[in-house]
Please model this.
Amino acid sequence: MPELPEVETTMRGIAPYVCGQKIKQIIVRERRLRWPVVKEIADIKGRMIESVSRRGKYILMRLDRGTLIWHLGMSGSMRILPSGTPPEKHEHIELQLGSGLALKFKDPRRFGALLYTDTDPLQHRLLSKLGPEPLSHDFNAEYLYTACKNKSAAIKSVIMDSRIVTGVGNIYACEALFGAGIRPTRKAGRISKKRLNFLVDSIRDTLRDAIEKGGTTLQDFTQVDGKPGYFGQSLQVYGVRGPCGVCGTTISKQVQGQRSSYFCPKCQT
DNA sequence: AAAACTACCTGAGTGC
DNA sequence: TGCACTCAGGTAGTTT
Model:
């Protein structure tokens, strides 16, 4: 479920509760996530959480020694609740904090991850090859044009490639392409710089708007306080079965690279 | 080298 | 009501 806006929402939600807190206890109820949670994770007990940040879809939790790297996968979410609140089903990890509150990580599909590193987390093998953040200045028309040049792959798969730009998943790729008037199947190398400029702006606007609304709740994503995100109401093509809000043409759905693409056949060319 | 496909999981929804 | 089936927001690794 979680793409960049949901990860950002989660990160902002937990930050005030975890920053400056001591980890009194870590409980791992299920270590079989995307990668097994190592037994040595127990060693972080007693350490201080100094800061929380995001890189792509990863949440980085810097400790007074070492860094925790979290990924929400497809179905992961985090909540802050009083320590001692009975664990829900699929609540695999719990960090009990000095404040008496606890960070709880729930992930039914177990595609998420919790990793630990002693060295620079940005150099971790999972993070070192990530492309620029879509909301940073490094992601611009010039950059995207170079990345798309001579590529025969569909533009949608290019903007979902984390080595090119990080954090754009299926929902926001569909929405951003609609905003830019570009068909998801169009070959990346055959789009003008001017149109790619529209796309860069559209990706930014879409992500910012979604962050502002607390992300998208489709199945079970919730914000840290348990409330849903409200961007779902703003989706213009993703999951839409019916007319385009701009021109009235019926929204098309097409499977592309094992994943559903939604687009307006009239507005997007 | 680039593009396409596979695998990892559970749960929700659909149709019979 | 229940069973069988399809599909889902991610992404590393493998195959074509």
